[in-house]
Amino acid sequence: MTADELKSIISASLRCDYIDVDGDGRHWTALVVSPEFEGKRSIQRHQRVFATLGARMKTDEVHALSIHALTPAEWQAAQQA
C-alpha cells in the first residue's frame, strides 16, 4: 500500500479538510483534519479513522497507524502557533 492509497481510503469514508500520510508501507503516520471530529474525544476520533480502514487493519495490510486527528479550528490554531 502507498501513502496515496491510504489517503484515498480514509478520505473516501471521512470528510477531510486536510490529510497527510507518511510511512514505509506497513507503519504509517496520518494527520487528519475533519469537521466530523467536532465534539469528539481523541479516542472517538481515532476510532472513526480506524473504521475507514476496516479489514485492512485486521489483515495486517496496515500494520500500524499513528493518528493525529484535529478539527479544522484546532488545525488552524496549530498553524498560527
From TrEMBL:
Pfam families noted in UniProt: BolA
Annotated InterPro entries: BolA (IPR002634), BolA-like_sf (IPR036065), BolA/IbaG_stress_morph_reg (IPR050961)
PANTHER family in UniProt: BOLA TRANSCRIPTION REGULATOR, BOLA-LIKE PROTEIN 1
Similarity comment: family membership: Belongs to the BolA/IbaG family.
Protein name per UniProt: BolA/IbaG family iron-sulfur metabolism protein
Organism: Ramlibacter lithotrophicus
Lineage, opening ranks: Bacteria, Pseudomonadati, Pseudomonadota, Betaproteobacteria, Burkholderiales
